[in-house]
Predict the 3D structure of the following.
Amino acid sequence: MKTGTLLDPTTKIPGFLSEQIQKHFPDKQLNDLTIRYYESVEDVGYEYFQEKVLPTCNHDPAVKYLEPFISYIKLGEALTLSREGIVIYDTQENNKCTEIGPFWFVTAKSTDRSK
């Protein structure tokens, strides 16, 4: 598993992605947003588990024991369906796109879950 690719605001993004971002965040500049590209929803769950769950309770032996049994897909689905951002599927650039990815996950930096 890998974490999502964080896009730099200076990177040229596809036109359809830019349009969707402007619709959802009309008063935000690209510099005010965090744009990540994920190959699969599993990667969102994995990233969240590694960055948020483990650091806060890694002293608990039960967490380390349960780690291999965590459903990264279910955790990822819960995150991407949250209200904190938008999910834009890569249907125009990737003809193998399905409901689990690949996709862009866009959040405002003030509500970004990675902070």
Observations:
- The beta strands are 5-7, 33-38, 85-89, 103-108.
- The mean pLDDT is 78.
- The longest helix spans residues 41-57.
- Residues 5 and 30 are 16 Å apart (CA to CA).
